[in-house]
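Newbie here. four chains, one complex. Structure please?
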Amino acid sequence: MVPVSYYLILSGILFTIGTVGILVRRNALVIFMSIEVMLNAVNLTFLAAGRYLNSLDGQVIVLLVLTVAAAEVAVGLALIVAIFRSRGTTDVDEVNLLKW
Amino acid sequence: MLYQAWIIPILPLLGAATNAFLGARLGKRFVSLVACGTVGLAFWGSAWVFADLTRLPAGERLAMLPMYQWISAGDFQVNFALQVDPLSAVMLLVVSGVSFLIHVYSTGYMAEDRGYARYFTYLNLFVFSMLLLVTANNFLVLYVGWELVGLCSYLLIGFWYERKAAADAGKKAFIVNRVGDLGFALGVMLIFVTFGSLDYQDVFAGAPQMLAVGSVTATTITLLLFVGATGKSAQIPLYVWLPDAMEGPTPVSALIHAATMVTAGVYMVARTHALFELAPFSLSVVATIGAVTAFYAATIALVQADIKRMLAYSTISQLGYMFLAVGVGAYAAGIFHLTTHAFFKALLFLGAGSVMHALGGETNMLKMGGLRLKLPVTYWAFVVGALAISGFPGLSGFFSKDAILWQAFASPRGGIALWAMGLATGALTAFYALRAVFLTFHGESRLTWEAERHVHEPPSSMALPLGLLAALAALGGYLGLPHILGGSDALGSFLAPVFLDQANTALETQAPGNELGLMGLAVLAAFLGMGLAWYFYLARPEAPGALARRLGGLYALLANKYYVDEIYGGLVVQPLVALAHFLGEGFEIAVIDGVVNGVGRTVAASGAWLRRLQTGFVRNYALSIFLGAVIVLGYFLFR
Amino acid sequence: MDFVVPTVDLGSIAPALLVLATALLVLVGELFTAPGRKGALAVLALLGVAGATAKSFLLWGQSETAFGGMVALDNYGLFFGLIFLIALGMTVLLSVRYLDQMDMDHGEYYVLLLLATFGMMLMASGTDLIVIFLGLEILSLSLYVLAGFARTDLRAQEAALKYFLLGAFSSGFLLYGAALTYAATGTTNLARIVGFLAQAGVAGNPLLWIAVGLLMVGFGFKVATVPFQMWVPDVYQGAPTPVTAFMSVGAKAAGFAGFLRVFLYAFPALSVDWTWLLAALAVLTMTLGNVVAIAQGDIKRMLAYSSIAHAGYLLVAMASNSQAGVSAVLFYLVAYAFTNLGAFAVVVYLARQGQEALELSDYAGLGSRAPLVALAMTTFMVSLAGVPPTAGFVAKFYLFGAAVEAGLVWLAVIGVLNSVISAYYYLRLIVIMYMREPSALLALAESTVGAIFKI
Amino acid sequence: MNQLGFPLLSAIVYLPLAGAAAVLAVDGRNPALVKATAFLFSSLTLLASLPLYLFFQADTAAMQFVEKVPWVESLGINYQMGIDGISLWLVLLTTFLSAIAILSSWSAITTRAKEYYAVMLVLETGMIGVFVATDLFLFYVFWEAMLIPMYLLIGIWGGPSRIYAAVKFFLYTMAGGVLMLVGILALYFINHAVTGVYTFDLLELRKLNLDFWAQLWLFLAFSVAFAIKVPMFPFHTWLPDAHVEAPTAGSVLLAGVLLKMGTYGFVRFSLPLFPAAARELSSIIAALAIIGIVYGALVSLVQEDVKKLVAYSSVSHLGFVMLGLFAFNSQGVQGGILQMINHGLSTGALFLIVGMLYERRHTRMIADFGGLWKAIPLFSMALLVVSLASIGLPGLNGFVGEFLILVGAFRHDWLWAAFGATGVILSAVYMLWMLQRMVFGELKSQQNQGLRDLSAREVLVLAPIIVLIFLIGVYPWPFLKPMEASTQALLAEVKSKGQVLVLDGIQAEGIPMARQDLYR
């Protein structure tokens, strides 16, 4: 039996990877993927905790989170497509009209 | 009339108000009628009051006239109240009398001036203020009169406001007087704090009980009051305004800067003698300042070419005499000299005014000469005045000056030194008085041809006051004819109740021979001065120049009035102005404004700088969130 | 394992459901309205707002929980609901002409607004971290789209993208916080968290602390506290003005609804620690918002920074961690809603044919061109600055009162000094309107007052 | 409580506001109508305020004409107004000067006259409200609310750098005000902690006996607001700018009334609420007051702009007022209050006169004038009289106030009086020098020769002030008498209170309690 803390640590690492991905990558799509990694790290936490607590709540929540993530994908991709159409790039560093 | 005496000061006030509002519309005749009329009535009232007082027993010659509740704040309760007693009565007479004569004189002197109504408004206002000053029943009313005469002096010195010198002189007079007034006001405050009242009666009655002789409080109060007196009465160190004040019309100089206002300090010291008696140190300060001023101013007068300035220094010197008198406890003698001085100095000024009138405003004696034939009336009047001030035996100045010298010598507060300075001053006085006569009226005419043609005797409105004042200057001395010459010292005994508590008993113990002997010395000194004047200015007209060259340094010192104006300028005025410039143009902008604007600018600048953090790069924003999260988590984990 | 079917009490979220139903109706109605006639949908939306508002008043005073304790019907939620409805109603009113003028009159706009409001209301009445998260996501997703509603406008696209990326990023934090809370306490239900924390000796669990910190980051993003505020200026500037107005009021209020509910209700046991952090964040937020607002030349951006500053003020009240603090926040939000919406309303009102009066200099001379509009704007600015006798003053009075009562005098002092800084840029607009000559650009001829301004 | 049975104070406060509405309602194209309406309402207010004096009971220190209506009961906020001997004259001064100021604007204001008069009237409401409010919340509302109309007045109708001046004025005074707000709140909660009652009622709060350190901090919080308003050195930087840039009427009200709010605040709030702190800090405040007296006078001396000169002279004069107030005796306090009135009259008149000159000549530089007496004697006469009043010449109003203040200061510490009195000399210096350069001397400039003298309306504006200047100087008793009872009560309060330390264990954060033993 793998202790729950392993799962939590793993999810923490995943979450951090997602975060760092957002900070270091310039492609909007990759950033977007990193966010998905973060959400999945959270999902892992829920699942592990639910399993550990012997509660179904965790799994139910994961389903909800997946739904939300799906919705985010829809909106996010649409936005990125719109940006790509008008600017021909998905490099977020070139999306820089609004500042100061 | 005694208890209606408040009408006396009110009359000129009404005159002033009438002329102020209606004068410009109603013409010169009306103005002069109102102005002279009200002052004449005031004189008549004063005489009436005087008569009423003499009818009362000597101990009961005091009438108090509370008028209305004036200022009240907590236990500070001051009424607007007047009083009449022998001292006030004498002052009333002198002030209203001389004022009346000078008003009449002014109707001639100022006849052509376009500010006629304004002039008489100020003049009447002055008479009101001066009468208020001498009839005040408490220190605050005294102070009001004190300041108001200063105001009138300011207005009248600067009467010809278009002349910068006149406006400057007025301002200087007011400000220097304010310096003195500051001391006076502090003295009044200390009186209130000490006695809980400002009424003369409370203060004078309470003083001996509440303050020990020589106590610090008494000394402080009196010295502060005396600071006021040095300002108003032009004594060292605050005399500097008076010579400049000659920029005013000459009748004003006669009235305010010779006969009345400047003597307010003497009156005040006499009035508050009950306090001064408790402060021997203050008295000796008064006497010393008086004697030194008398001598000092006389030396300056020796070399003045401007007749009015010469008279101004003479006034300072004579006022010094009066302070010498009151400083040695000879209050009655001081008042006596005040009175005679009012006569002869007013006479001298009016005489000088006549000369100026005749010469179209010329005041430089070096440009006159030989006028005695052309202006006989003026000449004789001026001669009487000059002899009186010189102490020519039998004329008024002789008696009053002699009374002072004698008491300065004999009084326990006096001494040889004070007397000697007085005596020397007497010689100097005789010298410069006669010098003025000789330079102006004798010798060759140094007039321009143009001026010569216009010389004319003054109109009767001016000549009449001259004559009357000449009579008074000649005969005024008999008011206080000393016992030793068979007189009764009428003035002294009339004033005695006021100064009763300070009967100078020591004098009685002196041998009568001393008094006569000293009198002789004084006469000798006067004649010495006159003789020297004759020698220098009639017999050897080239001598003064030679002497001036021989004693170049001394002459320059005197001619430049010991450089006192320059010293004050360098020590007080310029540093103050420099400080003001520094504060107003440097400190105010750099520090006071700078700090506030600096805060504003800093905020704005940090705004402009901080907005740069908003780079527009979304990854930087994410980084910010990430760092924030790290900090928040760090706080929670390591709290 | 027993499976208990939770009681479904739709009545307790009736106002939210009404909004949702309206959204669906408008969505359907969109199909049947010709282009250019979309104003009818606005009327429909307004009807929904009115209905929800009425329902909220009817429910006022009731107190119950529903959906197995995941949602609560209480005055707190209803009050926030009313704020959202006000924001929604006014935004709809503002939008009709604006959409027309800006040529983006699509019915989905109203649907998204309604859905966002639904999310907000869910957030305010949720008593379970997951419900709050769901509400937040509904709200956010709608707003992402709304922010980029001007599809062809580069700035709007950029705003939407930034908002989206950062929003998703931060909701990851929030969700992770919820997950760790779940891991630490075994529940995501606020009431049960309270119960769990009431036990002795659990407060030291680092997992719980990390959870609290992550939740704070997540909510901090929504309400825009420093250093999670970076998105605000860009998004506010880029989004269509009515959407900005809606965000600045509704989204912020919703953020605070969740923030307050979670922290003051669920985590008071830990308050000693988080109040200090909040106080520190409050200082940073107020100061940065106000100081940078001074340097702005674009009115929307200025108002964005101003809204950051206002979040800081609200944090002051929240840091007092008291009933008075909560009341102060509620009152403040109402006052803020009206004034801020009013200010944006003026901006919207001045928009003409694809042109907006966005530069501060565009307002020069407004005082003589349109005195009443200028007067209204003056009132809003004065109120935002918190000068009596305006609502903004009373709100600040409550707010700083709460802080002083809680002993945070220093925080109140910093707060009031900040309101002085803020007065500078609010006043500057007044200066421009009244004391400067009009610029040629927007020398509008007419000065009639068409829109409804609330004072 | 209320001797009239009629909410007179409210009527006085809101009458101008109604006037503002009326002004906005009338046809703006008819300027005469606008002016007449504004003047009508301001003079109605003046008339309505006269009964305050007529029915005033001078023998009691209690609040009179009291109105008290619960406003926000849950917070203990009352709509509560009342006046006593301290505020009576300030209210009258406000109504008086407002009417004068409106009358004086007749020809000076040509742009946006309608808005101008409305703003003036709103300002009047705010000013009166400050003086009559006896509930701290209400007071604060008026206090801050009044900033806006003044801000607009300076900013819209002011001189060239009006915006800078207006913003500086607003922000600086607001900065002080908000600190007071924190102070008010702290006081409110401390009071609740001690008594269990939530109230903003000044009269209730005055019963509170605070611990010294609490008093100190609260005193500072309140006093910063007041000191900025006074303005005391070194908080005066807003004043010259605001004065110089404001339109004449604005300057008149600024100098005449607004500055008095600061000193009034000290008497009404700082002294009775925190007497121990006030006593403890009195020497510092007196020192600042004296510095202000001398500093203001010296800076006035070097001003080129006559309006700025008058502005700095206000710093000096208000220094006198503060000196009197912190002498803690009836002479000082009564003198201080009277001097507030005096300063309102004489400085108000000076600003009016300068404004009249500016209207004619469009310059205020002293160097541009000279010899005015010859061209416009009536004008010059008025300037002379008012200047003399300002430098405290006996027989005019300034003397009575200044002298009482100095007596009071002397009683407290003779050095105060000695240093303070140097201001009397310096005031003569700068005023007379100004007179000399403007009124006296040669009439050089061509432009000055053609000036016209005062018009009938201008005489009407100045005459009432000058009459009062004389009246107070000659017969100040009726002005001093009504303040007597209130002053005595105030002094008794200041002297007796603050000896006992309450606040058992009550601790407001940020108020350090540890060092209270130092004071015992």
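Moderator note: Confidence is low (pLDDT under 50) at residues 500-520 of chain D. The longest strand of chain D covers residues 64-72. Thread marked as resolved.
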